[in-house]
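B., you asked whether I could sanity-check this one before it goes into the benchmark set. Here's the sequence:
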Amino acid sequence: MSMKTVLVILVLLGLGFWLWPEGRPEKIQHIPMASTERSTTAGPVIGYEDKHETYAWLGIPFASPPIGDLRWRAPRPVKPWQEPLQATRFNNPCVQLWGPLAGVDGEEGEVVGDEDCLYLNVWSPAVRSTAETGGLPVMLWIHGGGNTIGTANTYDASLLAGGEQLVVVTINYRLGFFGWMSHPALRGQGVSAEDASGNYGNLDMIAALQWVQDNISDFGGDPENVTIFGESAGGRNVYSLMSSSLAQGLFHRAIAQSGSVSSTPVVVAEDFVDASPPGMSNSSGEWLLSQLQLADKANDREDAKAVLQAMSLAEIAAFMHARDQTEVLSGVEGFAGMYSAPQSIRDGAVIPEQSQLALMKSGMGYNAVPLMTGTTRDEAKLFMAQDPRYVKQRLGFIPVIRDLDIYNGVAAYFSDQWRAVAVDAAAEAIAAGGGAPVYAYRWDWDEGADTLLVNYGQLIGAGHGMEVPFVFGDFAGALALPGFYNDDNTPGRDELSQQMRSYWGEFARAGNPGRGREDDLPEWRAWEAGVHNLMLLDTPEGGGVRMVDEPMTVNMIKLRIAADTLLEQEERCALFTELFLKGNSGDDFWDRGEYDAMGCAEYDPLEVSYF
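And here's what the prediction gave me:
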């Protein structure tokens, strides 16, 4: 495996999942165990005995397959069964473009997965895995992957469940165009608000949470103590569920790891890129123009516009449903399977029309539950490692940072913005609105080894998604990068992983990470208005696990850009737009007056680009 290939896979690690060395997980068949038979509202299931003194049940359907007429509709109840379901292997991942970590076999450009994919997996401590012996906290994991790739099939939650005495659930949900598609043709007469919402991926998550409410007690879990947690796109989905009235009462704590509070206005999700205001590049309107050309119903984009204008809504809907799963994703460009698409669309039924930060500041209209939120210190480095402007390839495969000062400086802008919006701004908004407690963190572990080929500490640092194996404690199952872990960093890695699982588990148990499950860690204090309590998560070599008061605000970053003497004027303007107009900050922080005052009036913010 070349180092270039290794780094591509490393970038994908940041999407929140990793490969299993023993083979594709959905192909592994475990031995059913009669004592694991449990009842669900749809029928009995049988699991198997897993590691760390747990039982596991894999591939349990929580909704009917969203196929045929149910594509682009809210999930429907699963069809009941009578004979015990052998829940001993993972089921289908959802439809996606293949990437190295898709979780299924495939090759570049291939569409993999299946529309029949709404399945979940459960791990429970063996001795407390029944309604009579359980009453354990429940944690429901929402995987990352840009909301366009990924699957629950690549997570082993046995140590988290067994070690912290929790019931852990991992779920699949519809991805990309299958999970989010907003268009008038899908909002016909008599269509419910949920069916018309465009937010089918969010509704899948809500259906999985409803399954937990109805069934988890028979697996030893407490339906009155459910924590949702997720990383990257999964963290974004955590915030979206906090904003959805349909999820009210279905969960009681929330953990957003490298999440985002942004959501997509309907016009952005639907309109053409040359409309006013413009839609996004993969809006439903743009998707339809591309599909009409691919189906040989139009010769070019302008012709496709004319064809679309002449079609009735019923004809458009019929055309959309006639496209098979491969055709739906045809013509889509992305990196390693990921592509930009509307997400968390502000339809007013599933996702509110207001921004999530506005809801938090108001103190109303969102699910105010205890929240743990954080980022990694060097979020951006994982992606910059693939950018030839910053990293060159010596001998064609050895990554070399071109200018370490510039590399660190640019990484700091994008990493700090991620934290300022997803952590500090959210925590301040909730504190201002009198909401539930917020516990903030920054993950600082940057001790990836310095090998003969690459210095991981410099290249990746405390990169995006690298904390996920620490939360699950699954380093054996994680992709083994050449020399990334060694005899020097493994002891500290394992200690920090144990500490994090203790904090995560105690938060799930009590809504407060406190001093961890064993009451032996530094106390994690809640954020307060004007008091920026931040837990730094690191090994003793990096200063240890400790509380600090170190704010990171949007205004601080804007002032840094304006005063930056290393950037040219156009670069400052482009950076400003990337961070506060085009990035994951939504529409809460863009100010055209600030932009112009910085000397940027001559540069159209929609045209100027930092990349």
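One thing to flag: The two ends are 29 Å apart (CA to CA). Otherwise nothing jumped out at me.
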